[in-house]
Design goal:
With 231 residues, the protein is α/β, with parallel strands linked by helices. It folds into 2 domains: 121 residues, Rossmann fold (3-Layer(aba) Sandwich), CATH 3.40.50; 97 residues, Winged helix-like DNA-binding domain superfamily/Winged helix DNA-binding domain (Arc Repressor Mutant, subunit A), CATH 1.10.10. It is built from 8 helices and 12 strands. The strands form 3 sheets. The chain has a 5-stranded parallel β-sheet, sandwiched between helices. It has a 4-stranded antiparallel β-sheet with strand order 6-7-8-9, with helices on one face. Helix 1 packs across helix 5 and helix 6 crosses helix 8. It starts with a strand and ends with a strand. The relative contact order is 0.10.
C-alpha cells in the first residue's frame, strides 16, 4: 500500500537521503526544505505520517507539529540535532509520537516510520489481533474503529495516545509498569529516559480527559511503578 509521507528538513542532503530510503520502501514522499512548503502540503494533501526537523529557519518543526495536531491525528516523528531532553519533551507535548536524534542511520528512521504506520493502521483499519469495545466510567474505546468517546463526546487521540489508553483500560484494576507500557506501545527496548516519553504522553492524555495527576478520575500514577486505571 502506498503511504504518503511528508519529510521536512532544511538540510537538503538529509531530506534527499531520507526520501531515497522511503521511496525504496514504496512510500509516496512529499519533500520540503522550508516550513512554508510543508504547511502548504499539510493543508492540501492527504498524509499518513510526517517527519519534521525541529531546527527550521523561521517556523520551527514544533510549530508545524502544532499545526498538524489542530486537524490531524496521523503519526509525527521529530528530527532533532540536539540531545537536550527538553526538546524531546516539547515535541512530545505538542503531539509528536516519536523523535530521532541526528546524526541518525537512515534505516533506523525507516524502522521508526514503519512502526508508527503499523500502529496507526492497526487501529484505523481494524487489523488488530484483538478487537472489541472497552467501557470505563463514561470512557468508551472502540479498537476496530479507533474511536474514543468521553461521556458520549468524541476525543481526538493520536495513535500513540490511543494505544496507551487501550493498554491501561485493557488492564484496568492492575498497575502497568512504565517499562511494560513502553515496550507494549513502542515495541522497543526500555531505557531510563523512556520513562519521560511515557510521562509526557500520559500528561497529554490527562489533559484531553480533563483529568489531573493530583486527583485522577482515570489514570492514576503509582509512584515508582507505573500507571493504572481503576475498574
Amino acid at each position: 500500500m502506498g503511504y504518503a509521507i511528508l519529510v521536512v528538513d532544511d538540510e537538503k542532503e538529509i531530506a534527499d537521503l531520507v526520501e531515497v530510503y522511503l521511496r525504496a520502501e514504496n512510500y509516496e514522499v512529499y519533500k520540503c526544505y522550508t516550513a512554508e512548503q510543508a504547511l502548504e502540503i499539510i493543508d492540501h494533501y492527504p498524509l499518513d505520517l510526517a517527519v519534521l526537523d525541529v531546527m527550521l529557519p523561521g517556523v520551527s518543526g514544533f510549530e508545524i507539529c502544532r499545526h498538524i495536531r489542530e486537524k490531524y491525528t496521523y503519526p509525527v516523528i521529530m528530527l532533532t540535532a540536539r540531545e537536550q531532553e527538553a526538546d524531546k519533551i516539547t515535541g512530545l507535548t505538542l503531539g509528536a509520537d516519536d523523535y530521532v536524534t541526528k546524526p541518525f542511520r537512515p534505516l533506523e528512521l525507516v524502522a521508526r516510520v514503519k512502526a508508527q504506520l503499523r500502529r496507526s493502521t492497526q487501529y484505523n483499519r481494524g487489523g488488530a489481533e484483538e478487537s472489541g469495545i472497552i467501557t470505563v466510567s463514561g470512557l468508551v474505546l472502540n479498537l476496530e474503529k479507533h474511536e474514543c468517546f468521553l461521556n458520549e463526546k468524541p476525543l481526538s487521540l493520536t495513535p500513540t495516545e490511543f494505544s496507551i489508553l487501550w493498554v491501561l483500560c485493557r488492564n484496568r484494576g492492575r498497575v502497568v509498569s512504565t517499562e511494560e507500557l513502553f515496550h507494549t506501545v513502542w515495541g522497543e527496548k526500555y531505557f531510563t529516559s523512556s520513562s519521560n516519553t511515557v510521562m509526557v504522553h500520559i500528561r497529554h492524555l490527562r489533559e484531553k480527559l480533563g483529568d489531573s495527576a493530583e486527583r485522577p478520575r482515570y489514570i492514576k500514577t503509582v509512584w515508582g511503578v507505573g500507571y493504572k486505571i481503576e475498574k
